[in-house]
Design goal:
Oligomer: single chain
Number of helices: 10
Structural class: alpha+beta
Helix content: over 70%
Shape: rod-shaped
Strand content: 5-15%
Number of strands: 4
Amino acid sequence: MIQHILRRTLRSLKENFSLNLVATGVIGATVLLAGVYLSALQTLDRVVESWDRDAHVSAYFQPEIEVELRFATKDQITARQEVATVSYVSEEDAAAYLSERVEEVGPILEELGPEVLPASLEITLSQGHATPAEIQAFVDSIDGPPFEHVDYGQDWVQRFHTFLTLLRGLGLVLGVLISLAAIFLVGNTMHLVAYARRAELETMKLVGATWGFTALPFALEGCVQGLIGGGMGLLGVYALHQVLVARLEDALALALAGAELSFLGAGWAVLLLGASVLLGVCGCLWSVTRFWRKAP
């Protein structure tokens, strides 16, 4: 029985090579799109994680606060569990820093005096306390005297987190739609294969062959299509990464942000390959089921 099923599967793959090639190409394209999306999503996650590790808060002192109180405040904040480092920036240091980076501002600061810029504490939070909600809670806890203003550049990171969540949701919807379209195309392609063998299948049904015995060769055929198509799709993702994504990494300088564009991990590759096999099998079984119900 096993030999018979394998022989029928190999014969179908050979006799319907063009149709099987189309089905395999559809599966490969599906895996390619999914792999590119997952690679981009992993990179975005790494970028956000690197920004979270560098969560930075600037607390600006009120002008009348004495230097002794400033350093006492610095010691109090340094002792907090969620704080990694704290550095004091005087008015003179702030003016020098700004003049160094914006040369046109130097003469203006010399005329107005260094006290035009406030002294501040530059606070870096530890990695375990760097989510947007935790940063906001920390800012709320220190906002007020002796500080005139507390600023942190994580508002846009929070918006980016929201955007990333939306992107994941859209990616999930897109993935489902692509999978359904692939199942439809593979199923219709395999329906043509089943139609080409309709006389054989009708005869098997008339002599009492079960649906499982009839459908198993098609399922094996879909499994082969899924393996080949999934492998082609993964090779396409890897080739795209080598040719295009490495250049984008240099152009966008993402490595400077503490993240890098990388190929899918082994877990995702195995998952995509398994999904491609499932896609091929489901498409084939769907086509056989449609034909089986219509056959006399």
